[in-house]
């Protein structure tokens, strides 16, 4: 018997970086998922394999790279942490084989690490015979997220766990508010992989030193998020687009955008997008555009012509799901 779990990635529509400081963020689970399969092992060791070409075996405190060398050890560490967290939580000492398959590009701001952590927690719990709530899935996945993002808000694993279109502040804990609206987003991937944790830490240092009026900008971001929530209720997509543009300017001010992202943002706006901004940690990765149907092809073309890879994403309502399969 093995367990399988799937969890979606995400796009942050409004509020990345600022959400760490309890500013409301609006985030959407997307129709790109990771799948994690977990089977018990008789030898007591932990073996993790990713379809990106990484594999490691962990036994008696030692790690042996099987595919991908030292990079595999770093890449698979969040999966190991998520699995060990569940084993310790249930006081289990069992060997596991874990296979990770992802349709979410890695390290580009679409929540691949959060989705992998969430799916791993759900699948390991299921194969061990334990039924856990979504709140428990989220909380157990946070330890792995701290390894990846240093001081994460928790929003990535939250939306992967619950799915849908959510508005959330840290003080809301495991009670995000769902926005019952459907929206499609054009994503532009610069192809530049980067560390979200690095940029979260950079913004944190600026806030501590009160550089560039960061605290005042947080007030502006809170205002943008609240206006966006109102615009979603009325499905005022023109206002939603304008607020995306404003959000991107705030992210530029705090230093998390870069030339590649700004080029795609500017090009998509010129192509007719209602609004465009970076999404996620910044420094590369992805940007997003809100468009009308009539302008979508032109926006995708602008992304391609300016060195990006376009894709259209839609809302995933389900969040994480796990089930058992007979071998």
Layout of strands and helices, then pairs:
Layout: E1 2-14, E2 25-41, E3 46-50, E4 54-59, E5 62-67, H1 69-89, E6 95-102, H2 112-127, H3 134-149, H4 155-162, E7 165-168, E8 177-178, E9 184-189, H5 196-208, H6 214-234, H7 237-253, H8 259-270, E10 275-279, E11 286-290, H9 293-305, E12 309-314, E13 321-325
Parallel strand pairs: 3-6
Antiparallel strand pairs: 1-2, 1-13, 2-6, 2-7, 3-4, 4-5, 7-8, 9-11, 9-12, 10-11
Helix pairs in contact: 1-2, 1-3, 2-3, 2-4, 3-4, 6-7, 8-9
Explain what you see:
This protein is of the alpha+beta class. The chain has two domains: 187 residues, Ribosomal Protein S5, domain 2; 131 residues, GHMP kinase, C-terminal domain (Alpha-Beta Plaits, 2-Layer Sandwich). The strands form two sheets. Strands 1, 2, 3, 4, 5, 6, 7, 8 and 13 form a nine-stranded mixed beta sheet that branches. α1 runs antiparallel to α3 and α2 crosses α4. It starts with a strand and ends with a strand. The model has no long low-confidence stretch (mean pLDDT 91).
What is the count of distinct domains?
Answer: 2
Estimated share of beta-strand residues: 25-35%
The geometry reads as globular
- The number of helical elements comes to 9
Structural class: alpha+beta
Q: Write the element-wise H/E pattern from the N-terminal end onward.
A: EEEEEHEHHHEEEHHHHEEHEE
Name of the CATH class of the largest domain? Alpha Beta
Would you give the CATH topology of the largest domain? Answer: Ribosomal Protein S5, domain 2
**Main sheet specs:** 9 strands, mixed
Instruction: Write down the Rg.
Output: 20 Å
Given as residue ranges, the uncertain stretches (5+ residues, pLDDT < 50) are none
How many strands? 13
The CATH architecture designation of the largest domain is 2-Layer Sandwich
* Helix proportion range: 40-55%
């Amino acid at each position: 018997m093995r367990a399988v779990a799937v969890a979606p990635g995400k796009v942050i529509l409004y509020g990345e970086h600022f959400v760490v400081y309890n500013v409301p963020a609006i985030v959407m689970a997307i129709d790109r998922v990771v799948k994690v399969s977990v089977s018990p092992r008789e030898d007591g060791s932990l073996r993790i394999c990713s379809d990106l070409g990484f594999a490691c075996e962990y036994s008696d405190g030692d790690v042996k790279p099987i595919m991908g060398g030292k990079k595999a050890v770093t890449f698979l560490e969040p999966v190991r942490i998520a699995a060990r967290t569940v084993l310790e939580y249930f006081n289990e000492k069992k060997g596991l084989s874990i296979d990770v398959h992802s349709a979410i590009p890695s390290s580009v701001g679409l929540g691949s690490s959060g989705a992998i952590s969430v799916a791993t927690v759900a699948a390991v719990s299921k194969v061990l015979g334990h039924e856990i709530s979504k709140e428990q899935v989220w909380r157990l996945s946070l330890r792995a997220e701290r390894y990846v993002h240093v001081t994460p808000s928790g929003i990535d694993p939250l939306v992967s766990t619950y799915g849908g279109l959510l508005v959330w502040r840290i003080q809301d804990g495991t009670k995000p508010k769902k926005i019952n609206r459907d929206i499609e987003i054009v994503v532009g991937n610069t192809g530049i992989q980067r560390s979200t944790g690095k940029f979260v830490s950079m913004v944190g240092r600026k806030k501590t030193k009160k550089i560039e009026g960061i605290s005042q900008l947080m007030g502006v971001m809170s205002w943008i998020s609240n206006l966006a929530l109102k615009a979603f209720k009325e499905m005022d997509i023109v206002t939603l687009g304008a607020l995306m543009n404003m959000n991107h300017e705030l992210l530029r001010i705090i230093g998390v955008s870069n030339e590649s992202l700004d080029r795609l943002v500017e090009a998509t706006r010129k192509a007719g997008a209602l609004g465009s901004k970076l999404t996620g940690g910044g420094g590369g990765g992805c940007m997003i555009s809100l468009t009308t149907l009539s302008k979508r092809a032109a926006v995708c073309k602008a992304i391609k012509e300016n060195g990006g890879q376009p894709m259209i994403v839609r809302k995933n309502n389900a969040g994480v799901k796990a089930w058992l399969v007979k071998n």
